[in-house]
Amino acid sequence: MIRLGVLASGGGTNLQALLDACAARRVDAEVALVVANVPGAGALARAEAAGVPSLLLPSKGVERAEYDARLAERLAGAGVDLVCLAGFMRLLSPGFIEAFGPTAQSRGCPRVMNVHPGLLPSFPGLKAQAQCLAYGARFAGCTVHFVDQGVDTGPIIAQAVVPVLPEDDEAALTARILAEEHRIYPQAVGWFAAGRLSVEGRRVRVAGAAVPARGLSSPHD
Ligand code: GAR
Prior knowledge:
The chain is of the alpha/beta class. It has 6 helices and 9 strands; from the N terminus they run E-H-E-H-E-H-E-H-E-H-E-E-H-E-E. The protein has 2 domains: 1-100, 3-Layer(aba) Sandwich (Rossmann fold); 115-221, 3-Layer(aba) Sandwich (Rossmann fold), CATH 3.40.50. The strands form 2 sheets. The chain has a 7-stranded mixed beta sheet. The chain has a two-stranded antiparallel sheet with strand order 8-9. The radius of gyration is 17 Å and the shape is globular.
């Protein structure tokens, strides 16, 4: 069973999805530490409710490399195998990414994952859902990817697609995407925990996973 460190800045619904998947044994992992960088983040209350160790490490006004060194130290101290960004609204420094780089035990996979509310490489960065609506895309979705030193640029592990409906506003689209995040993030973490992921260049292989037979179109009759 691997040990997860989950980093969050907000409400923590993705943290909850991971906690639930671990508790139900759908994922062979346990959440060893939750770290929030924003006081009052809902993720802290969720960790407490689940009886999981948590830590508030405020980032405001702290220099990035110094903050990330403290963060890496706490995660390593908790014996974390995989760091999961779950609405963690900060960029991580190269030093942090290196500290959680590939090991023999991770089968060469990086050890930081993120979930992003957009179909990368479209709409990286902040407010992906608003970017998607403003662009007029027919489909939106979410991406689980390994984290590299760029912004939302690391190798893609899983994606899920949702339609953009004519009446959508940002809140409606965000909710539809979030439901898919809650499904594919635990799935991707489960694959990592089971040693099913490997990375070849930018392409992530998932041993034994199914793929869709054909495409979708929208609008359609
Ligand atoms: C999620 O939609 C996640 O994809 C997004 O923040 C939300 C956090 O929700 N992350 C990013 O935009 C990172 N660039 P949560 O706190 O309820 O899990």
